[in-house]
Amino acid sequence: MSTLYESVGGMPFFESLVERFYAEVEHNAGLRALYPSDLTASRDSLALFLAQYFGGPTTYSDVKGHPRLRMRHAHLPIDVAARDGWYDAMVSALDQVDLDSEARVVMRDYFDRSATWMINV
Ligand code: HEM
After folding, report:
1. Region 24-45 average pLDDT
2. Which residue minimizes the CA distance to atom 9 of ligand 1?
3. What is the number of structural domains in the chain?
4. What CATH number did the domain enclosing 108 receive?
5. CA dist., res. 51 & res. 99, Å (int)
6. Would you call 31 exposed, middle or buried from its count of C-beta atoms within 10 A (0-12, 13-18, 19+)?
7. Considering only Cβ atoms within 10 Å of each terminal Cβ, which end of the chain, N or C, has fewer?
């Protein structure tokens, strides 16, 4: 059975999605302030995590161990506004990439739930 990772085109798709996501983050000062000034490592981590989550290579965990994403965000004050900003940036990024409607729904739904899960204040 093919994975979502394969059906969307593999690593280049996730790199492109993440690049657009961070371009959207630049338009939201409050959200941008949570991130480091140099986004290179952030881009790599997010692309590798998403590729792994959607059935691609396990490079993220091979390098960093179990994702434990909520714990990795625990030092960041993520309120509802930050959550909504993050989700909106990701939905805008999804709207800019070539994706069939089924994969779009699956990814949007995952981001909706996972972003809410990250709220910690
Ligand atoms: C809900 C609002 C969220 C905010 C404000 C937020 C913000 C951040 C910030 C500031 C970092 C640290 C900088 C960096 O290493 O990139 C980070 C890391 C990361 N975030 Fe988020 N994030 C949110 C939700 C999510 C969600 C929903 C996912 C996945 C679906 C995610 C995946 C990641 C990953 C993979 C990392 C890198 C962790 C590591 O390997 O060190 N984030 N996030």
Report:
1. 97
2. 35
3. 1
4. 1.10.490.10
5. 15
6. buried
7. N
- What does the pLDDT look like over 78-102, one tens digit per residue? 999 999 999 999 999 999 999 999 9
Nearest CA residue ID for atom 26, ligand 1: 115
21: its two tokens? 């996501």
Ligand 1 atom nearest 116 alpha carbon: 1
| Alpha-helical segments (H) within 1-121 | 4-7, 11-25, 29-32, 40-53, 59-64, 69-72, 80-96, 101-117
Containing structural domain, residue 80: 4-117
Per-residue pLDDT, 1:
67
Ligand 1 pocket, 83 CB below 6 A? yes
Amino acid 15: pLDDT = 98
Greater pLDDT, 1 or 30: 30
